[in-house]
Design a protein that fits this description.
- By secondary structure, the protein is mainly alpha-helical.
- It has a single domain, classed as A middle domain of Talin 1 (Up-down Bundle), CATH 1.20.1420.30.
- 84% of the residues lie in helices and 1% in strands.
Length: 317
Amino acid sequence: MTSVLLIVLGVAVLWAGGEILVRSVTGLAAVLRVSPTVIGLTVVAFGTSAPELAAAVFAALDNSPGLVYGNVIGSNIANVGLILGVSVLVAPLLNNNDATDRQAVRLVRRELPFMLATSLLVLTFTAFGRFGRFEGVALLALMAYFLVVLVRAGEVEEPQAHDANGLKSVLGTLLGLALLVGGASELLVPAAQELASDLGVSEKVIGLTIVAFGTSVPELAACVVAAYRNHHGLVLGNIIGSNVFNILLVLPAAMLIRPFETTFLAEGVDASVMLAFSLLMFLAVYMLRRGLTIGRIWGILLLAAYGPYVSWLFIRQ
């Protein structure tokens, strides 16, 4: 029970740290008169993946590769199966063709091939059985290329003045980083390890389920609000962007700290499930582009796929 409470507290601290970090760095960038497009494609996207990054880095430092792998793969599965499923239950997704959705769907079309390709790349690494520093550098290089493509393909916007306070933004940035570091190193990772020991299951299963859900809470909140406000393109953009950052930033950051080996027999099923959910995401975007609606039946089907998968993870142990 203590481990569960510490995990909940750790997730809350990570969420608060991510929120403060995004708001503070965005305000600081506005003071420096940086383009809003650049901020949105870098700072905000990084901020929503900050909890996963913090948890993965400290899991690697603590020599817990199961938590690293499980957190990244589990978060990507939860983003589609759970978050998209809940979002379309709140409000079915359709192409409203308003300015916000048009911009978001354009981003989705550029991000989606990266998401599919990186999911397949992780499956390939799993088949070869090693997540080493060379592979980590390759993923980070793809991350840099991904950001360059987004910035060059996006609409050019002039920097805008902002009334943000520079000192407040700097202090907020430091506080956000402190919460992320403390929440991951002192609460979430140790508690997850203890819970795995208490339940007699592997750290990977805890990472695929409890930790993955906890670090995906910011995406869940953002997508539910976006769906409720009928910003349908933003729901897809948030999910796809988060999945890309998890693979191209979170995973290689941990791999550079502590490479780990695996086997396709042990990890291949989970990587295959992630790829399958990525293909479902591709189908959803294709439906929207064809003018079709992703209705509540889709939400039920996604949750019906995600729920048994999580249950099977514990049964398999």
